[in-house]
Structures are given as structure tokens and as C-alpha cells.
Amino acid sequence: MILLRDIKRPIILASGSPRRSQILTMMGVSFELAKSGVEDEDAYLDVNDLDNSLCRLACAKAEDASKRRPEALVLGADTTVVTDDSEIIGKAADKADAARMLRTLSGRSHTVITATALLCGEVNFRESVAVHTQVFFRDLDEEEIWHYLSFPEYEDKAGAYAVQGGAMTFIDKIEGCYYNVMGLPVTATLGLLKKFIRKETDNGRQ
To answer: Are the beta carbons of 112 and 159 closer than 8 angstroms?
Structure first.
């Protein structure tokens, strides 16, 4: 059986997201934090190849910390929202932009995609995966949109909402990983960590 306690290297989360930190902590993972060195994130995104472009972005977020700490396992991630007509909805520039986003999502489904990357420079390990979750919003009226936006919860969130906060009342149903919508898919992240453990174990046998 492969267990997370079999990881003997330090783990670094290359993200300032408190949601990702919360999820990793709930998973029982001990980790350090490092800031992502990526500034122009939108330059990475390609609507015609969204999964792969998001994975490249997640890898880029992890690379800076990996170069500084090649012995460590570095986890990077990026989340975006895509409407059913392929419009990419990132983080709101301001409250008016957030209101526009919520109107766009109202009464329809959208896809939340989180790409997660795991790097270890010392052993040249680099793996990434993109996970999709379908989220269905009920119809929202202007009053509740602006009431929601009167709180800072929407800030720095893809799609201008937090599934684990007040926006839970907007959602009819979710198909797929709930934690993916928060910003880190649990099963996929476990899969990356276990893949690394297998690589280390196999190398130790050689």
C-alpha cells in the first residue's frame, strides 16, 4: 500500500491560496508555502487547448520554487471557469466585473478546471493533470448578486465566487470533485503524490 507518509522529501505548495492550503491540511499533508513567480497568467491560456495550457501554467507556478529547492516536491495549481459557450472566466478585476461574471453564470452550467502539477528537480520528476467539475447555478437576481458582492469573498476567485462560502446558495448541483471547485482536486493530487512515491521506490530498488 502506498501512503503519503512514505514521502521523505519536503513538500512545498507554490500558491498563496488559503483554500489550497486548507485542502492539503485536511488531506494530512505537511507542507511549506512559496509564492508563485508567474505574473502574466493569462498569457499561458489557450481556449483551444485549455487543459494542456493550464497544466503548463501550473508547472510554471511550481518551477521557481523547484529551482530554489530542487530536493523538494513542489505543488503548483491553477483554476479557471469556462462557460458552456467556451468563454474563459478568470478572477474579477473589480466589483462591477464580478457582477458581470455572476450574471453570465446565472441560470446555466459552467465547468471549473483545475490543473495541478508536481515537480521535483533533483530527480527530474514533472507530472500534471487537469480535472473538470460541472457546476450548475440557479437563476440569480440583481439584489442577491450585489448583496454577495458586498462582502470580499469574491475577490481573487475564478468566476468571482467561493463554493465553500456564501455562494453555496447559488448552486443547484455539482457533478465531479467539490474540492476541485475550491482549487485543488483531492483524488488527482493524491494520484500525483503516489506516482512520485512509486518512482522513488522503483529508483531505490535499482
So the answer is: yes
- Distance separating the N- and C-terminal Cα atoms of the chain: 20
Tell me what pLDDT residue 206 has.
46
Evaluate whether 130 touches 54 at the Cβ level (below 8 Å).
yes
Confidence of residue 3 (pLDDT cuts 50, 70, 90): low
Q: How far is 29 from 15, CA to CA, in rounded Å?
A: 15
Q: Three cell numbers at 62?
A: 511550481
Query: Do the strands 125-137 and 73-83 form a parallel or antiparallel pair, or are they unpaired?
Result: unpaired
- Kindly give the interhelix angle for 142-149 and 95-105, rounded to the nearest 10 degrees: 140
Question: Cα(36)–Cα(29) distance, rounded to whole angstroms?
Answer: 19
Nine-digit cell at 150?
Answer: 458586498
Cα 188 to Cα 38, 199, 203, distances in angstroms: 23, 17, 23
Residues annotated as catalytic (active site), given as ranges: 78
Nearest-angstrom CA–CA distance, 92 and 47? 18
- Position 35 scores a pLDDT of 82
Helices and strands in the chain, H and E counts: 6, 7
DSSP E strands: which ranges in 45-160? 73-83, 88-89, 109-120, 125-137
